[in-house]
Design a protein that fits this description.
heterodimer; A: about 110 residues; mainly beta; 7-stranded mixed sheet; B: about 120 residues; 4-stranded antiparallel sheet; 12 strands; about 0% helix; globular
């Protein structure tokens, strides 16, 4: 899993509640990414960022928000607008143009 | 549109036999191709990549992949499978229209089961 940490490992959310997933990297990578993985499915891109204070929507950004205040950190907030948030969330980082390295993931469950 | 296809949901192989996990791609230029492996409840681990050069790429844990431009394929191979190779494998291609963001387009994944 390299130098990327995600916390918490497991997260439980009540209906109508916002939750924030943490992603930190010490690889000095410029680019960071958030993916969602559902059982039996591939990865879908939520948001990505190349530089501090800049980020772009991916394929499924609705109901999610991010910030990039520091190069090392790219937290993801799952808002109450995301109607089906139960999934495995993966954070990744890369040097621009090279392969992405992934964190260990956070499993989010709605109660 | 750019895409990656992994035509097999699952591949079964006996330990000690060679394995192949298939991947085909569709891009409008020269592809950057990647293979990742995922063990249960873990993140993805990078195995290997093809950017340019030799069509046979060697990677981690004894895996290799063969780039075939005419067949637009990038199949993952290993000469002798281990039970510990059992995992979910993803092929990915760089989205050439993402500028400097290095977005990857992932296949749906292939589950490899190696039986003793």
């Amino acid at each position: 899993d390299g130098g990327i940490t995600q916390s918490p490992k497991y997260l439980f959310r009540k209906e109508g509640q916002n939750v924030t997933l943490s992603c930190e990297q010490n690889l000095n990578h410029d680019a960071m990414y958030w993916y969602r993985q559902d059982p039996g499915q591939g990865l879908r891109l939520i948001y990505y960022s190349q530089i501090v204070n800049d980020f772009q929507k991916g394929d499924i950004a609705e109901g999610y928000s991010v910030s990039r205040e520091k190069k090392e950190s790219f937290p993801l907030t799952v808002t109450s607008a995301q109607k089906n948030p139960t999934a495995f969330y993966l954070c990744a980082s890369s040097v621009v143009g090279n392969e992405q390295f992934f964190g260990p993931g956070t499993r989010l469950t709605v109660l | 549109a750019q895409s990656v296809a992994q035509p097999e949901d699952q591949v079964n192989v006996a330990e000690g036999n060679p394995l192949t996990v298939k991947c085909t791609y569709s891009v409008s230029g020269n592809p950057y191709l990647f293979w990742y492996v995922q063990y249960p409840n873990r993140g993805l681990q990078f195995l290997l990549k093809y950017i340019t050069g030799d069509n046979l790429v060697k990677g981690s844990y004894g895996f290799e992949a063969e780039f075939n431009k005419s067949q637009t394929s990038f199949h993952l191979k290993k000469p002798s499978a281990l039970v510990s190779d059992s995992a979910l494998y993803f092929c990915a291609v760089r989205d050439l229209f993402s500028g400097g963001y290095n977005k990857l387009i992932f296949g749906a994944g292939t589950r490899l089961a190696v039986h003793p």
